[in-house]
């Protein structure tokens, strides 16, 4: 629209009343005619609806699983047959047989096997057959979808990969031996790898990934991919495809296993790309390069990348790559720097005895290799001696493969001697048949040496299993301390020994049992803490042990209700393994709320110090016997008087011993039974002194008021 030149255009806020006032002041009002008498056209405005009215409606995306709720096998089969009839394609009998065998449709089914359909007469997975499979994928999910050797073309592969991406149909997908999926098929596969979060395993063996298809896969692996395992054996990767793949995987942190066998990778450009990949990617754990042309020059590049692998690569397979003793020199210098490499397979390379000698020092300096493959590496007895030196020095080697080598009596003897000092090797693979020797008696010697080697491996296996079981027991006992709660029952008989049960449970938890006298295996620093925490059975003093109810005890055995010897107390023992063979037991005594009786301060009776002379079997009695014993001639337990001596174990004055019965019977119970009586005497004396103090205070206050 055009604005008249004599009118000013409205400002940015012309739609508001407050901002229209300046515009109206600048332009003449249409109501007031100008001087020449001609009416001017009104100013035109552009208005927009409010934010709430801009969006008139919204359509929710279709739920891909709207057909998969409470589905049955008959419904799936019926839908598949109708789709085949609609698309005018032949049904796949192998698929129908598998559908009829499915039972649990609520979870991912183990496998959908469509392998080698084109081999069977009348069965082929073409585009229309793939479209009919959508009725299955929209209702069921699988762990493995096997499409190996199904003769997929570009249209069928694109349709299938789009379905698997949309419905998240599989976690493991096998598309190997499909040579005609083409560029559009790989493009759909790359889109599936990038968008599907559940896809973890992709097998594309013998499926060519050419120059014009590799960029799609490389972009998918670089941006975002949930793949953990990728098989690209015999995929024609040499050259630009490998360069794109290696460059993309430098930034991939999810891929764990990469298999690149049979790709004719050379020892120059391809190996350089792999070396750069190992420098920057520390999440890759398995790299399989078997049956390529890496050569010694390519191994030098790979070794440069291995030096930077502080964590990550655990398995390196270099089987059949024309490696010689020259490449073993590079590898021998690299092995001492690797910290994560556990499996190294060098089989079917002409390494020879010199190559093993170059490798020996590096293996001895390495601290991570557990499995070593040297099958068919042209070794003789001389090379076996070098390997035996490594075995004798290695404390962690688990498996060694020496098959298909000319190892005769001398080499077997060196290996047998090495196994006598090695306690880690569990499996040593050798040829079962002895090698031909000039002396016929040596053949029997070879058989005997082979038997000795196998027996040594069996011995190491038994020792390893015993060590593992012992470590598991130690970890279990260290991580899960046992807690026992003991509550003496109030209806126990007077002759029962409640002290036996805690002692038995403490022994079951690993605590040492009662020992004669005051001897103990505990540390010296715990002996001074017997009054607070205690050590083993010594932590249980006679006055703090659960005892039967007070009505079944003698008059000298009664203790205040609030003392730790209350019959309803709880003892919680927490045991855990200590240093060496020693076991520490911590005992905590919890008492219930006190009864409504006058509180009396409890007097604890610590065990007698080591300086006191006591009978050696005084500590072997349970706490209940230390408090009261049964007399066959009486109906109730009789208290045992204390043993006379220069001092008492509980710290009381020696004068209190004169108030005890004059003729104490000698025996081990004398010292233990004195705690109850001394406790009662001290309590009665404290009561008398308290009454006297109260009486004096009342008399003094009466005199002051007068």
Indicate the low-confidence ranges by residue numbers.
Answer: 1-31, 490-590, 602-645, 667-681
Q: How would a crystallographer describe the biggest sheet?
A: 12 strands, parallel
Cross-sheet strand order for the largest sheet: 1-2-3-4-5-6-7-8-9-10-11-12
Helical amount? 25-40%
Percentage of residues in strands: 5-15%
Enumerate how many helices there are, as a single number: 20
Q: How many beta-strand runs?
A: 15
Rg, alpha carbons: 45 Å
Instruction: Report, as a whole number of angstroms, the end-to-end distance.
Output: 118 Å
Classification by helices and strands = alpha/beta
Assembly annotation? single chain
Mean pLDDT: 74
Principal-axis shape: extended
Plain-language structure description:
The chain is of the alpha/beta class. 37% of the residues lie in helices and 9% in strands. It is built from 20 helices and 15 strands. It has helices spanning 17-26, 51-54, 73-87, 93-101, 127-132, 134-137, 154-167, 182-195, 214-223, 240-249, 269-280, 295-307, 325-334, 352-365, 381-393, 409-421, 441-479, 500-508, 623-627, 669-705, and strands at residues 109-113, 142-146, 172-174, 201-203, 229-231, 257-259, 286-288, 315-317, 343-345, 371-373, 399-401, 427-429, 482-486, 570-577, 583-590. Strands 1-2-3-4-5-6-7-8-9-10-11-12 form a 12-stranded parallel beta sheet. The protein has a 3-stranded antiparallel beta sheet with strand order 13-14-15, covered by helices on one side. Strand 4, helix 9 (214-223) and strand 5 (229-231) form a beta-alpha-beta unit. Helix 8 (182-195) runs parallel beside helix 9 and helix 9 runs parallel beside helix 10 (240-249). The longest helix is centred in the middle third of the chain and has 39 residues, at 441-479. It is extended.
